[in-house]
Amino acid sequence: MMADLSGQPGTRELVLRDATGAAAGVALVSPTSHQVALFTDALPRLSQGGYGCYFERAGQRTWIGPMQSAEGVQFWAGDMADSIEMTAGDKLVVAEDASAPSMLSASF
Predict the structure, then answer these.
(1) Domain of 58: which CATH number?
(2) Phi and psi torsions of 62, nearest 5°
(3) What is the pLDDT of residues 51-90, one digit of tens each?
(4) Nearest Cα residue to 90 out of 51, 65, 67, 62
């Protein structure tokens, strides 16, 4: 999906950053197809549960999808709700749940 998204007009590449501001992954967001793909190898393994991907505007989070994990990398790719229109100041956030501190984030 990342290859497909990178070829779509208007797709934005965002850098996922950890709490210290260090680059920790990449996200591709297509405003025309309302699809997003995230990839990182910087999330610690959780003993229970997993991470989720969220859209955040003005501190309010909207669920996008669950992060998957395989061989030390975490990723998610799929559709965002059509109602999500990312504008300047909005973020993609990876966290344990909607109210947990963000583990990774990228500003649009």
Answers:
(1) 2.60.40.200
(2) -120, 130
(3) 999 999 999 999 999 999 888 899 999 887 766 777 788 8
(4) 62
